[in-house]
Amino acid sequence: MVVDNSGMSIQLSNGVTMPPIGLGTYPVYGEAMCKMIVDGWDSGYRMIDTSDNYYNEEDLGVALSRLYEARNAKRGDLFLVTKISDELYPVNQPGAGTNRGIFFWKSSPMMQSPTAVHDIISRKIERSLRSLNTEYIDLLLVHRPYPDYIHEIWAEFERFYKQGVVKAIGVSNYHARNIEALSSCEVLPMVNQIEVSPLNTRKSLIEYCRSQGIKVMVFAPIMTLRTVRDSAYHDMLQGLSKKYDRTPAQVLLRWNVQQGLIPIPKSTQRSRLEENIAIFDFSLEDDDMSLIDSFNENRQYVVESKACPGF
Ligand SMILES: NC(=O)c1ccc[n+]([C@@H]2O[C@H](COP(=O)([O-])OP(=O)(O)OC[C@H]3O[C@@H](n4cnc5c(N)ncnc54)[C@H](OP(=O)(O)O)[C@@H]3O)[C@@H](O)[C@H]2O)c1
User: Fold this and answer.
1) Which domains occur in the chain, in start order?
2) N or C, where is the chain less crowded by C-beta within 10 Å?
3) Alpha-carbon separation of residue 258 from 15, 49, 173, 216, 292 (angstroms)
4) What local confidence, expressed as pLDDT, does residue 242 receive?
């Protein structure tokens, strides 16, 4: 079943519109990627999230070519999101072979040249465009704050945005203080992609983003189904699941969109892809939204940064 969510687009601060839900792609590769992208399209997903450090942009590019052919879809029908990250792989830079990666740290030998940030980001964007087989990226995110180069990286993002190679720019895993560091920049982030779950509701950060006109995308929106052992939590989800005749994943995803958040669940299973997007025809009552919120304990599941001094 295709879920038509086109009438529910989210408008970014620069007027660009994006779908209200997207498809995560980590860790999906090869044939599994091709199948997921076509199944995702058939189920109604029009936004796809990847990153340079998932090392699957090329696989996604191949999958997109298959999709265009198999379903007569066009690039313009899709909203592609990718990210710029520290990476373990060399990126064809002088000295990359010895440094075994790109790290946005003051102490990284890769960052010693005055044009390092410019060169790295240009090359990465070129590579993403090539891999994804596209002339533009709909939304480009800084994967983490990288505090040593927060301004330099953002200045490069602004430059590519102004050139039109990327239609919208944003950040990921940024706290309010990291966003505040960009407050004097000409273009403010349009999106912040963060972890949000009932155990980590991020209310004050979400409120701050709202006050700045920044839309919040949510990664790992249903991961708590797998990672949480607390039976009271699962009992609560089961109770709501029964009440609304929806699955626990649908309850979680509905809790996201009802707050104006944009979730990007990943599944390689067709039935789950369909399940996860079928959330626009019911609402949770206010009391049930509050009940879910009441499980907050500021528990972060994804490690925000292993390699980011001063984060
Ligand atoms: N910006 C960042 O730092 C960051 C960090 C992490 C992730 N991300 C992005 O966010 C996307 C989503 O996050 P995530 O993949 O970590 O977590 P998620 O989408 O919340 O959960 C994915 C897991 O849940 C399973 N699943 C999917 N639908 C289900 C359902 N209806 N019922 C039960 N289980 C279900 C999936 O298995 P099956 O595939 O077998 O269905 C998979 O194991 C990633 O793919 C990536 O694109 C970004």
Assistant:
1) 6-221+261-267 (3.20.20.100)
2) N
3) 21, 21, 21, 12, 12
4) 98
**N-term to C-term CA, the chain:** 43
Q: What is the pLDDT of residue 309?
A: 43
DSSP state letter for 203: H
Peptide bond before 248: cis, by omega within 30 degrees of 0? no
- Ligand 1 atom closest to the CA of 144, numbered from 1: 3
- pLDDT mean over 91-118: 73
170 lines ligand 1 (CB under 6 A): no
Q: With a threshold of 0.85, does the pTM exceed it? A: yes
Q: What is the pLDDT of residues 30-53, one digit of tens each?
A: 999 999 999 999 999 999 999 999
| Active-site residue identified among 54, 161, 174, 208 | 54
154 CA to middle of ligand 1, Å? 28
